[in-house]
Structure formats: C-alpha cells, structure tokens
Amino acid sequence: MPLLLLFHKPFGVISQFTTGSNGNHRTLADYIDVPGVYPAGRLDADSEGLLVLTDHGPWQAHITHPHHGWMKTYWVQVEGIPGEKALNQLRDGVVLNDGKTRPAQAQQMEEPPHLWAREPPIRYRAAIPTSWLSISISEGRNRQVRRMTAAVGLPTLRLIRFAVGGWTLDGLSPGEYRIADSAMLSSLPTSSAVPAKRKRPSSTLARRGKY
After folding, report:
1. Which of 8, 140, 146, 206 has the fewest beta carbons closer than 10 A?
2. Confidence (pLDDT) at 193
3. Is 170 a known active-site residue?
4. Domain extent listing, the chain
5. Class in CATH terms, 71-162
C-alpha cells in the first residue's frame, strides 16, 4: 500500500531531504525518517504549515496538478487592515507578472487559536497594525500568496498553510508528522494520471502556417 504523510513544516526548513545549494537550512531529513517519500508540492523556507509527502508518483501528480483543483488554505498575517476592495480583488483574481490568478476564497479572520511561536518572530512596526486572512487557492505558482497580498497592498508577514484539500494541521505540532490511514486516503483515486496535453488539430496547425 502506498504511503502518504502529513508533516507540519517549521519555519526555516526547506522542502527537500538534502541541502543542495540552500546552505545551512534544516531539511526534511531532520524530521522525517520514512524512506522513499517525497513532497507533493512545496513550501518555501520562510513559510510554515502542512506539507504532504508520498512514495506514490500518481498520488503526487494528482495532488499537485492544477487540473484536479485541490484547494490549499493558508492563514496569512499581513501588514494593514484589509478592506472589502482588497478582499474582492483576491476573490476575483489578481494580475501578477506571470498572469492573472484564479479566483480565490479570501476573508479576514481572527488570529488562529493556539498559535505557536515562530523563531525568529515577525517584524512589528508600532505604527502599522497587522491582521489575519484566510486564503484558499487551487493553483501553486511560486510564492503566489505572498505576491497576491502584496499586489493588493497587504504585505505578508507570516504564512501558514493550514489545509490541503480535506487534510489539515489539526493535531500536529511544528516538526511532527503522521502517516495517513485508509480513511484519510479516501479522497485519492486508486489510479491517478496527469492529463496529457491536447494536441492542436492538424487543420489548425495548417491555418497557422505550421506543417
């Protein structure tokens, strides 16, 4: 039976098992002793929260490919207080330098309960208030949530991925992982494949001068 792990990645840990060119960062190998598993998606070193790992390639592809529309929910601490205009921009899609994002679910929230301390702590500026947002997206561009909040005038100070699909951080402290049981795997198909790219019909190619 393939394995799937849910890991609470702490701040400063890179989403790989070797340091590579990332210098002295801690890696997944400092926390996970299960051989053969790899991340399905990633979190940047300066982001925290839920990271899914599996030893099954089709599951990895199913979770990460945008075609399947897996929602990922983030708790985001930002500088400033969001107005309805900024929230609607996030909901409608934000124009970034690599194109417009898909519509997101976005709302203001209270500070998460039982929030753990981060080391190092975020920077505070006495003259600028901070607030928390819940943002759910179904795509995974590089540093996407940070770029989205910056685009609407709300720079991100702290970013925590709380959920991937129906899996959440509940019950996991930073640095802890658990192996998913059969009930938790019910959202995954027994066979998954990344959809092949559709080939353009030959007539279309001919009209565009490609033979």
Report:
1. 206
2. 44
3. no
4. 1-70+165-194, 71-162
5. alpha beta
- Residue 35 identity (one-letter amino acid): P
Q: Which of 44, 55, 170, 181 is catalytic?
A: 44
**CA-to-CA distance for 30 and 45, rounded, in angstroms?**
14
95-132 per-position pLDDT tens digit: 999 999 999 999 999 999 899 999 889 988 878 899 99
User: Which residue, chain included where needed, has tokens 């925290």?
Assistant: 48
What is residue 22's predicted lDDT score, i.e. its pLDDT?
62
1-70+165-194 topology per CATH: Alpha-Beta Plaits (3.30.70)
